[in-house]
Structure formats: C-alpha cells, structure tokens
Design goal:
Elements lengths: L17 E4 L10 H15 L4 E4 L9 H8 L4 E8 L5 E9 L3 E5 H5 L15 H12 L4 E6 L9 H6 L3 E3 L18 E3 L11 E5 L11 H5 L7 H18 L10 H13 L2 E4 H9 L1 H5 L4 E9 L8 H12 L3 E8 L7 E6 H5 L2 H6 L1 H17 L11
Parallel strand pairs: 1-2, 1-11, 5-6, 6-9, 9-10, 11-12, 12-13
Antiparallel strand pairs: 3-4, 4-5, 7-8
Helix pairs in contact: 1-14
C-alpha cells in the first residue's frame, strides 16, 4: 500500500514529463479543483520533476460553473438567494462570461445535496428558474445551463413556473411543485413565460437518457433521489402526462437529464441539448493541453458502467485516445473493468482499507492515489516529450 506522503522511489532517474490532471468532483467529498490539487500533490511526491497541469473538469453537473470561472478570463460571479429543491432558501450564483453569455448550474440551486432528506415526489427545480431569471435580468444574451445532480423529477416544471409558466389541474388550479403532482396536469399556460435570450439556450447534459421508458428519467435516476417502486411509477406517469400536454421531443437523447429538466427547457424554451463534457473540455482547454503530454490522470467518485456515457472519465478517455496519451484513473470505488485506453487505475477505498475510511479523509487518500498512479506510470511506457526543464 502506498502511504499518503509517498516517496521519490524509482522515479528519480526517469525523464520529467508533462502530466495533465483532469478529474471530475468526488461528489459529497471533494470538488474537482480539490481533487486535482490532491492528486497532483501525491504525484509530485513520487515524481517531483514532472510538470503538472491541473484542469478540473465537469460534465454538466456539480462543478461546471467553477470550471468555466477558472477557464474564462474576466468571468464574473453573481450571487443570489433562491428557493431550494425542498423549499428552503439556498445560496446560489450564476456566472457572466464576456460577450453576454451566462452559465447557470442546476446543482447549485436545485441539487440533491441541498435536500435535508430525499423527497422524490415533491422536490422541484424552482431555484433553477430563479437563477435563469436572474441571468436574464442581468443582461444575458445567451445561456448555458449545466444540468446534472438534480434532486427532482419534475420535468423542469418548477424552473418554468419560476419563469412565468403555469401548470394547471382539471379545475384550473395551479399544481403543487414536484413531479408527484404531474399526473393530474390538464393544461399548460405559457403566455406569461419569460422569453429565452436572443442568442438561445444550450443545456449541457451529462446523460443521453430519454424522458420516458425503462431508460428514462424516473426509471433510471429516480432511485438515486430516494424514489421507491411506487414513486417511480407515479413520477413516470407524471412525465408521460407532461409530454402529452407540452409536446416537444421526449425521446431526444438527453431529454431525461436532471429529472427531465432538459426536456422541459427544450419543449417550452427551445433549448438545445448537447453533451456537457464536450463543451466543458473545450472551454477548459483540455484538447490543447493533451498535445505532447506524457500522461493524463482523470477520475470520479465511483467508476461504473455509466462513466463512459457522457461523463468526465469517458470524455477524457476519448480525447486522450485521439491524442495518443495514456490515461490513469482514480476513483473512490471501481465498479467496472478498466476502460480501453487506461493503463492503470486505483480505488481510494482499496488504499484506505474501506469506503468509510476513504470518505472520512478524501484528500489524504487522493494524495495516496496520486502517488500510486505515479508509481504505476513510471513502470509503464509514456507518450509525449519530456517536460521543459
């Protein structure tokens, strides 16, 4: 086992290399920025002469706003108070980029960690709509909406209601917030809906799931939000009714992102749905950083079968494969075989002797993982030229 402080070991005589560290956040444990820094510290303990390039990445979920803020000069954060997913006030923010572009992150306003306790039928996206409205009022001419990490399965109705839409039951009364009420939807009034910005709205999605069906928002992601079998059936019926009334393209890839919020924004606001990882890696400068790199290190809290479909690890692997750069993966837990293009992987739970120990001191064990990956990389061939001395 490698201790968290590591040691120079056999790397002392190896040529210095440029190493790109491009992880996602470890949700609930460390931000992507913290993960990149800790992995880099561990790597340096084994290979102190390598050039480390830290590029925290997101896929449209938690941490997306921070990635844009770090990558785009002259970006400005605008804090605001919003209605959280369980109705309690929450601190959030939106980001203004040069040229009138705004970035709004759902996870900051309506994310699952903001809930005191799971409430899959009543959780809603009102706070996201309030943040979108603030960006409009602030002069945004184009909006990027990072969709991921949501607490709700309301089809984006909370966000649209905050922007002026009305969702009515058969008696003409406004439905209560949350996906649990949508099966009673009779009519949608969009006459009061604030128009989208002139440059349009782009939803950055981290999944390719449709809105409905066995691969849809309720069936696949409902359990992560505390929904049992009966809740899933009710939420699925509500989303189905919403699609019947609102129209749009419920079968579109990504429509099921963020509990169907992607579908709602596309159907009512004309938003485009795009893979978040592609937009965010370009903004962060990852393709350019990989040119001439010896290795790239990526990772996330849990590596599983979904990690290669629109997530950070899959996106980094694809770019690295195209650039001919070997990949090393760090994860809290490894629940899938090593992906093609990765030369090594390490689980924090294994290094720490268990998941609870890893969660108790994530930065310590991320440093240990960085040191272990550096040791494994030294024993494997590297691509790219030596780092400049």
């Amino acid at each position: 086992m490698v201790g968290p402080e590591g040691g120079a070991g056999s790397a002392a005589g190896d040529r210095p290399r440029r190493v790109v560290i491009a992880p996602d956040s470890f949700k609930g444990s460390a931000t992507a920025t913290e993960v990149a820094a800790a992995l880099g510290d561990g790597w340096r303990s084994r290979r102190p002469h390598d050039e480390i390039v830290a590029l925290p990445i997101a896929d449209g979920g938690e941490g997306t706003l921070d990635v844009f803020a770090a990558a785009v000069p002259d970006s400005v954060r605008h804090p605001l108070r919003v209605t959280g997913p369980d109705g309690r006030p929450q601190d959030a923010e939106w980001l203004a980029l040069p040229g009138g572009v705004a970035v709004v992150e759902l996870a900051r306003a309506s994310g699952l960690p903001l809930m005191l306790a799971p409430d899959p039928l009543r959780a809603q996206t009102i706070g996201l709509g309030e943040a979108l409205g603030a960006a409009l009022t602030g002069g945004a001419r184009r909006i990027l909406v990072a969709l991921g990490g949501s607490a709700s399965t309301d089809g984006g109705t909370g966000a649209l209601a905050a922007l002026g839409a009305r969702f009515l039951d058969p008696r003409g009364a406004v439905l209560p917030p949350g996906g649990g009420a949508l099966a009673r939807l009779a009519r949608v009034e969009l006459s009061g809906l604030r128009p989208p910005p002139p440059g349009g709205v782009r939803c950055l999605v981290d999944v390719d799931a449709p809105l409905l069906g066995p691969a849809g928002a309720a069936a696949v992601f409902g359990p992560q939000k505390g929904a049992g079998p009966a809740d899933i059936d009710r939420l699925a019926a509500g989303l189905r009714r919403l699609a019947e009334v609102l129209g749009g393209e419920p079968a579109a890839a990504g429509a099921g992102a963020a509990g169907g919020t992607a579908y709602g924004l596309a159907a009512a606001w004309g938003a485009d749905l795009v893979p978040g990882i592609r937009t965010i890696t370009e903004a962060a400068g990852l393709p350019a950083a990989l040119t001439g790199a010896g290795w790239v290190v990526t990772g996330e809290g849990r590596f599983d079968r979904t990690s290669l479909a629109g997530k950070v690890v899959g996106g980094v692997l694809g770019l690295a494969r195209a650039a001919g750069v070997p990949v090393l993966v760090a994860a809290g837990q490894l629940d899938a075989p090593r992906p093609e293009g990765a030369i090594a992987e390490v689980a924090l739970a294994r290094l720490a002797g268990g998941t609870e120990a890893a969660l108790a001191e994530p930065l310590r064990w991320l440093r240990a993982a960085g040191a272990e990956l550096a040791r494994l990389a030294t024993a494997a061939p590297a691509a790219g030229p030596a780092a400049a001395g």
